[in-house]
Structure formats: C-alpha cells, structure tokens
Write a structure and sequence with these properties.
With 119 residues, this protein is α+β, with helices and mostly antiparallel strands. It has one domain. Helix content is 31%, strand content 23%. It contains two helices and five strands; from the N terminus they run ββββααβ. It has helices at 48-64, 72-91; strands at 8-10, 14-21, 27-38, 44-45, 96-97. The strands form two sheets. Strands 1-2-3 form a three-stranded antiparallel β-sheet. The chain has a two-stranded antiparallel ribbon with strand order 4-5. Strand 2 (14-21) and strand 3 (27-38) form a beta hairpin. Helix 1 (48-64) packs antiparallel against helix 2.
Length: 119
C-alpha cells in the first residue's frame, strides 16, 4: 500500500494541508483537496465577516495558482500570503487579540491602544 506524503504549510496562525478529514477525524492526504485551519491556538477574536474574508482570500490565492503543481513551496506561498492578509485585518481592527488566549504573544505586532489626550 502506497502512503503519499502529506503536503502542508504551517505558519503561526494559518495551517493548510493537502488532504481532507475522513469520518474518523483523520487527515487523509489528497492532491485534490486543501484543508484550511485558521488560528488554531485561538490567538484572535473573530467575527463571521472577518473569517469569511480569510476563506475568500484563500480561495482567491488557490485559484490564482491553479494549473501549477501542488508542491510544498506553492502551499507555503499561499500560507504566507494568508498570514500577511490576517495581519492586515488585525491592523484594520477587523480582528483583535484574544486576551483570554492560553498564550498572549502579540506575534503580529503590539496592539494599538487609544491615547486619552485630555489629561
């Protein structure tokens, strides 16, 4: 039995696997299906609109690379681009750090704090 190697891209907040989850919850390698795991450590507070923006950007990036071979490099490029896109959502205030997260890391930059200039 031939077991294909699982291609993946893992950044701190975006994980992409060339595979799909089967009925038993196991990840099965696939050359046709990509599985996206956004913010696996729950470092951010999400609303449905921001999450849908990530999924749409993912679809857009995958579509832009259609026709190319599915390689570690191409998958990492999509993951990196999504990580940068997530940073832009944070900077725009569309997502925020989850201060109740297991670890508060500020890996995407220190949060902006409003300054009260009426002192």
């Amino acid at each position: 039995m031939n077991n294909p190697m699982l291609l993946k891209s893992t950044t701190r907040h975006i994980r992409i696997f060339a595979g799909e989850i089967d009925r038993d919850g196991d990840l099965v390698p696939s050359q046709q299906v990509l599985t996206l795991d956004v913010d696996p450590d729950n470092e951010f507070n999400w609303n449905e609109d921001a999450l849908q923006k990530i999924y749409r950007k993912f679809d857009e990036l995958v579509e832009a690379s259609s026709g190319e071979d599915l390689t570690d490099y191409n998958l990492r490029r999509v993951g990196s681009d999504l990580e940068h896109y997530l940073r832009s959502l944070l900077q725009l205030g569309e997502v925020s750090y989850n201060l109740s997260a297991r670890v508060t890391n500020y890996s995407m930059g220190v949060p902006q704090v409003a300054i009260d200039d009426k002192q």
